[in-house]
Amino acid sequence: MARHAPVSHAIAVSSPRRRPPIPQTGILVWLKANLFNNAHNTLLTLLAAWALFVTIPDALRWMVLDAVWITDDAKSCRAAAGACWAVIAEKHRVMLFGTFPYDEHWRGVLVIAIVVGMAVVSAFRRFWSYWLFLGWLGAVIVVLVLQLGGIFGLAETGTHEWGGLPLTLIMFVGTVVGGLPVAVFLALGRRSQLPVIKALCVGTIEIIRGVPLITVLFMASLMFPLFVPEELTIDKVLRAQIGMILFFGAYAAEIIRGGLQAIPRGQYEAADAAGLGYWQTTGRIILPQAMRIVIPALMNDIIRAFKNTTFVSIIGLFDVLGATSAALQDPLWVLYAPEAYMFIFVLYFCFCFSMSKYSERVERDLATGRNY
Amino acid sequence: MDSANSNDRAGAPMADNYDEIVQFRGVNKWFGDFHVLRDINMVVGRGEKVVVCGPSGSGKSTMIRCINRLEEHQEGTIVVDGTELTDDARKIESVRRRVGMVFQNFNLFPHLSVMANLTMAPVYVHGIPEQEAEKQAMELLERVKIPEQAWKYPGQLSGGQQQRVAIARALMLQPKVMLFDEPTSALDPEMINEVLDVMVELAEAGMTMIVVTHEMGFARKVADLMVFMDAGEIVEASPPDQFFERPENDRTRLFLSQILTH
Q1: B188: burial class by Cβ within 10 Å (0-12, 13-18, 19+)?
Q2: Which of the ends of chain B has fewer CB neighbours closer than 10 A, N or C?
Q3: Which residue of B has its CA nearest to A269?
Q4: How far is B110 from chain A (nearest CA, A)?
Q5: Are A276 and B153 an interchain contact pair (Cβ–Cβ within 8 Å)?
Q6: Taking CB atoms and an 8 Å limit, are B125 and A285 in contact across chains?
Q7: Closest Cα of chain A to B132: distance in Å?
Q8: Among the listed residues A138, A139, A313, A324, the one whose alpha carbon sits nearest the alpha carbon of residue A236
Q9: Choice between A215 and A79, residue whose per-residue pLDDT is larger
């Protein structure tokens, strides 16, 4: 076939392993690689530098140099050219605790500390155990005692007095803790082979996903009482909580369904062959794998659930944003609403950013296959 | 076998043909309109090894998956160790307890350690104490020669090691019959032998085995009966000597010539 000797050849060697060549470093190399690597990026870099040059001095002057930090007199703010951060110190009690009785605010502080503390502890895998579950159970009881009062010599404080950051956090934790099981059952039900269960779950998910959260909350707070006998009055906070749980549950159910669909058929077959029943297969084989897959997407929804707590203000509950708006009704300080809202901005950002960072870490752990 | 095992069987009707552990009689199955199993008649004797081969799509996997009801047949009867497979969930459960299965893609549970993969069914389905199950699991892992991997996760093992874990997992419930559905087809060539060695050892220990495979060297070594399937039918069934040396059917001859060259 070949009319002459083949051209293909290779050279066998015995070459020792060595380290890769050291890359060039230094600030100039970095600048060139990241900011000025071509004409297009050089132009963008210069534009961005110009925009910063124009805005930063003014912002700095308003926020820091000309700002009033401490005063209890709104007039001294009016005289200054900069921001009036003093409004935060002046109004922080109302902003953080809303209509909760002033002398009982220490209870609100404890509630915040307990919820944030438990959340931080729960973020670490090494604490994931039965004890953590018991810890949360204990935390719920303590929080309810602190918020409701009426025992242990605590003054009684009805849910109509709840407000501020404790209300936001309670609503948030309640939504996620109550909503995840709802989501799991809706997702499983949607894949059920029993037509009635499947129809019920599809109907619930689609109806809730088909309306805005505001509508769900209005339903829960205004229309629901019309449908039930008068003597059965369910607390307004609880009604809003149920509305939030259903809304979160319907969205999270669709995310979890995606995870369930990603589990290969072979897993079900292996479980069947081993004689595991439906609930054992679901609980021990399918769900643990599906939930891992959907953690990043679920964290996205959890962060959204945190921000969605602000919607409760339209049905007359004072979450931390609603309480801030209320606090700024004071005509003396009403001018300084932007400063107060910036504080709320930072507050929300801290919560959401840490959740986002946490989700990133979880994702990285799963990608490296740790524990998997 | 020992007396514990015969007690085990007390609930099942004692048929005259006790030696026949798996029976297919006139079994037909369709996927939609597609006739995937056509009039299957086959008997597997207690302690015997049957190797099933045939081109892809010939129905061989579907056939062995009917034995533990991963697939349902529409016509005919399948009897496993004296229990006829019907819609009755308790019968299915009782058959699955006596039948172990090894899959082409291992199908280990990736979120569980090797040990947890093995002890899952004994502990949570059959209520065997965890310590006892772990002890038994270690013995089986030693038998498949990977006791040192007990606390690793499946993703950390090679394909051959994973398949050996899968074999150990299937042995945990002390099955009467082991089904192997192309156990070496997903393996890199250098790992095929470590899995086949374990299967040969199992065969020599007297296990009843039904193996779908194209590993003809293995088949020659252990098979009591070779079954060749094509287009949903059993085309030829004979002892290995005859099957390899004097195949009677043209389709068998063509198939053998295709897989035995190179």
Answers
A1: exposed
A2: C
A3: B70
A4: 6
A5: no
A6: no
A7: 18
A8: A313
A9: A215
